[in-house]
Amino acid sequence: MREHYLLLTPGPLSTTPSVKAVMLKDWCTWDDTYKHIVQLIRSKLLHLGRASETHYTSVLMQGSGTFGIEATIGTVIPQAGKLLILANGVYGKRIEEISRVLGISYRTLEFAPNQMVDVEQVNAVMEQDTAITHVAFVHCETTTGILNPLEKLVHTIKRHGKIAIVDAMSSFGGLAIEVEKWGIDYLISSSNKCIQGVPGFSFILSKKDELAKCKDNARSLSLDLYDQWQVMDQEEGKWRFTSPTHVVRAFYQALLELEAEGGVERRYVRYLENQQTLVRLMESAGFKTYLPEALQSPIITTFMYPDLEHFTFESMYLFLKEQGYVIYPGKLSDAQVFRIGSIGDVHVEDMVSLCAAILSYVTNNGE
């Protein structure tokens, strides 16, 4: 087995040697140089989201993407608020679980995993249920790889005067998002996705005037988004509690490499070429995609199990791992599927060699 393998997942994902290398140096959370890096990251994130520093802020939060989601949901919805959750996969349902645990009033509008969130149905629910104050949904639902209609959904939410919360965990940095132009109130992502850093913190792009209303709302001490924002602003890059310094430095390096690649637009092209190459070669090897092309994101692709007598996902997973590739199991209860990511430090030639390994597995009928 290879010492290092290529992660073909929606995160954590394979990073460049230079991102790994900068983690060899230790940092002090109180040091001005380190805090300056934090401030640069916050500014660069707003630039990536096409949001002005006049109207928006970015806040970094310890923990995985789910920590960022919980910090946002638990802070920005007041006691008298009601959240509408739009779900067509497990990550939309996770927002529901967070709301239930935190005691937040919510309503879920659920769609099939192979169905985009329907804007007209969302509109109808908001017209009928005037108690709704906030709406949350996942942009790229990596349960299947489906891409929900972000701009249209936010437009509908704002037309009703509601607060839009977007889980852009697996899309921010890989797909162009006009945070300010579209009126997104809160956008959440994490360090180990399309920006190609390593796991350790999440980040939230927020409208300043909305976040300013959230003092004393938080249902958690450590996941208080408002207080985290206040400390980061007032102490110029200081985190309230110990920050993942090595991860932060690696993320800054990853941001520089994203810029050097040509920004989000060029990274999107690479991801799309990866995904299209993957699908073409997988189909030629006899695999079928779960989603139609029109619903598919370039982030991760779900494939149906092949009709092979001795096929098991576990045997193919181990076979591929021995060849240096790690793929993802499925998350659907009504279909036998597996998933392959196309993001990270991954290129077309990697997809070609991966598919050659899969074809070898298929040719030998899983034996």
Automatic annotation (TrEMBL):
Residues 60-330 form the Aminotransferase class V domain. One of its GO terms (biological process) is organic phosphonate catabolic process. Substrate binds at residue 339. It catalyses: (2-aminoethyl)phosphonate + pyruvate = phosphonoacetaldehyde + L-alanine. Gene3D superfamilies: Aspartate Aminotransferase, domain 1, Type I PLP-dependent aspartate aminotransferase-like (Major domain). Belongs to the class-V pyridoxal-phosphate-dependent aminotransferase family. PhnW subfamily. Homodimer. Involved in phosphonate degradation. This is 2-aminoethylphosphonate--pyruvate transaminase.
